[in-house]
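2024-03-11 09:14:02 INFO queue: dequeued item 4-hydroxybenzoate 3-monooxygenase, len=394
2024-03-11 09:14:02 INFO validating residues
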Amino acid sequence: MTTTVRTRVAIVGAGPAGLLLSHLLADAGIESVVVDQRTREQIESTIRAGILEQGTVEVLDSLGEHSRARTVGHRHDGIEMRFAGEGHRIDFPSLVGRSVWLYPQHEVLKDLIAARLAGGQDLRFGITVNGIEDAGTERPRVIATDADGQPLVIEADFVVGADGSRSVARPVVTGSAFGGYFREYPFAWFGILTEAPPSADELIYSNSPDGFALISQRSATVQRMYFQCDPDADTAAYSEAQLWEELQKRVPGTTLKEGPIFQRDVLRFRSFVAHELRKGRVAIVGDAAHTVPPTGAKGMNLAVADVILLNLALQALLLEGDERRIDDFADAARRRIWKAQHFSWWMTSMLHVTADATDFDRMRQLGELRSIVESEAGQTYLAEAYTGWPLATA
Ligand code: PHB
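2024-03-11 09:14:37 INFO prediction written
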């Protein structure tokens, strides 16, 4: 028996983009259904990045008591850029009057899910989406299979693909599974979580002859750190002592506080932007639409920026029948997406070391780093991009 559900906006994917969009739409009186293939437990426990732009935190404030970014998260007023054995602090408030918050993505997801369920949202886990039909009509449909293996059809006025980098919605919008601008990198990050006190108060982005390292935090007792590795690195191939050695040699000048390592993963680096972000009444947002390497900490923040634009466009379309904003959505979103792509690529290329780099390349890279940290204009560009460009308001 096929169950048919009717709603105004069908949202595929209960990640930050999908959940935030359903929240903003509900605030405007627009009903939606959110489906995700994963279980709630899987969604709430997947380890992802941790930096929120100030604008993202301000958007999350609208979750009221459910937002813990300011209480459980930590405000960071700067980062350290480390190279040639010296650290250089970039002070965000004095440069751009803004800050960022360290608050891991899975905590944001817990907040969003709690707020959506408290608001009576139709949020369904364990749903496999098989396809999206009739994108070119005013009644697009999501064709799915529910957690019990029964067919489920969601009829909507609009369908949003917020279903991540392996998006089912993307080929509907672009016409092919790979329809996009794409770049790969010859390195990856080896990430660890360790039970140890913080090694520094703020994040350290370190360029060293042995490659890049990022010293990040999670709490007073848990720390997150990464070091540049081969994309095919085997997480099991390193002893804990070897991992500390790899990390430590990439941050000369800082003594890392070591502890037991209880999680390890390899993050692959890709830059991707889909050729199209909307087809008729289907749009894609977040990782379904684009991927950035993690060096600029832009992934989740860019998803939030897409959602802010799409929310305004859907309100105009569904409440007033005004199509102008939805017609402009892709162009408006792309302006920020490509700035964030550039920033993420730039931070990546400036900080990592590649095996084929010549001595010239290496000296030029140090010159580039110096031209940023020794210049107020250079520091300001970095601070402006890192803390986030203004979000659309109306
Ligand atoms: C993290 O803490 O996981 C993190 C922070 C900054 C980045 C990437 C990851 O640029």
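2024-03-11 09:14:37 INFO annotate: The CA atoms of residues 182 and 238 lie 31 Å apart.
2024-03-11 09:14:38 INFO item closed
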